[in-house]
Amino acid sequence: MKRRRGELKERNQHLLKVLVEEYIREGHPVSSKHLAEVSGLQVSPATIRNIMAELEAQGYIRAPHTSAGRVPTLKGYQLFAHRLVTVRPLQASLVAHLREELGAEQDPEEILDRATRLLSEVTRLTGLVTLPRREHLCLRHIDLLPLSDNRVLAILVLNEHEVQNRIFHTRRAYGADELQRAANFINAHFAGERLENLRARMGEALARQRAELGALIDDLTSASDRLFTPVEGEGLRVSGEANLLEFRDLTEDIARLKRLFASLSEQHEMLEVLERCLEAEGVQVFVGSESGHEALSDFSLVTARYGVDDGVVGVLGVIGPTRIPYDEVIPVVDITARLVGTALDFGKPTP
Predict the structure, then answer these.
(1) Strand pairing class (61-62; 151-158)
(2) Which end of the chain has fewer beta carbons closer than 10 Å to its terminal beta carbon, N or C?
(3) Which residues on neighbouring strands pair with residue 130, listed in sequence order?
(4) What are the residues facing 307 on neighbouring strands?
(5) pLDDT, tens digit, for every residue of 278-336?
(6) How many whole angstroms separate alpha carbon 154 and alpha carbon 167?
(7) What pLDDT score does 116 carry?
(8) Terminal CA-CA length for the chain
């Protein structure tokens, strides 16, 4: 079978896999001599060095500083996590522990809180769980208020009396009168509408008001997903942020951790990332920039969705540095998601 253009030779893939595994386990640059000893390839040390040179030229590994060894790049981690990792079966004792801790005789919120703590404790990473998303959130009223730096505050009244605030950026500053006209239009035409329906209809309806609302139409249309995506006020439970302080490669640049912690605290952007996971089956792995979220550009996110009554209602997972043991973390996230779904959905067989 011919390799597709840009695809690594099987031997090169194997060597990259071993290099990433060794670096994850030891945390030190991996030398060609060490790779020759542990790779199982029946080739000369010179061949090992040539393969490493090819991998480096293709951007999968790099030499840190003046070290003779090599470490994976973000591109190398991505290939490893998506195609090369060999997932380990979980120990029976760990599965039994998770089953016991996530038993059905608990309040639903306690199940989710416990799942977050368990993910953090078992993986030694930061665990997170979204609360079950609520369908049928309806818009009752919206106010739009100008802020500084081309920002607008949207105050949404949902269902009977729930209030949520959203901030979005615009291409220019708008006055209070312009924003009031836009809010009046939305209230007149969409009060009582479900948010998920409103997002689909907003662009077309606003386009017909261009003569009255002008350029604000484009900004409102661009912001409609952010404005009208159902988000719980306390929709994200997080546990174990301090675990990330144990990773030397993260604490060397504390600004990265501050950005991540701020994002976890603010919640909205992180919830947007997790919202995408609701549409994908199985365990999802985002390495660095794959999440599309700047605060996660130096981290890995491993998630799985959980469901109730045969429907998907939330997402759980862990965040850690790119140097996490994917082979161990992936099955933990997978089984935890299935056990949470079982605990919330009484009567279903346990996984």
Answers:
(1) unpaired
(2) N
(3) 236
(4) 312
(5) 888 899 999 999 988 888 999 999 999 998 766 777 899 999 999 999 999 999 999 99
(6) 6
(7) 95
(8) 38
Looking at domain 10-84, its CATH class is: mainly alpha
Q: Which amino acid appears at position 321 of this protein?
A: P
What stretches of 58-132 show up as alpha helix (H) in DSSP?
74-79, 92-101, 108-123
* Chain position carrying tokens 């550009």: 297
Output the furthest CA–CA distance in the chain (Å, rounded): 76
Q: Which three-class secondary structure state does DSSP give residue 320? A: strand
| Domain covering 139-228 in this structure, CATH number | 3.30.390.60
Poorest-confidence range of 16-25, 101-110, 184-193?
A: 101-110
Fold classification of 92-133+233-344 (topology level): Beta-Lactamase (3.30.450)
Is the pLDDT at 272 greater than 90? The verdict is no
Q: Residue 229: which of 200, 203, 265 has the closest Cα?
A: 200
Q: Which residues contact 267 (CB under 8 A, 6 or more apart)?
A: 231, 235, 236
In three-state secondary structure terms, 121 is helix
State the pTM of this model: 0.70
Q: Is the pLDDT of residue 349 over 50?
A: no
One-letter amino acid of 318: V
* pLDDT at position 347: 38
Question: What's the rounded Cα separation, in Å, for the pair 169 and 147?
Answer: 9
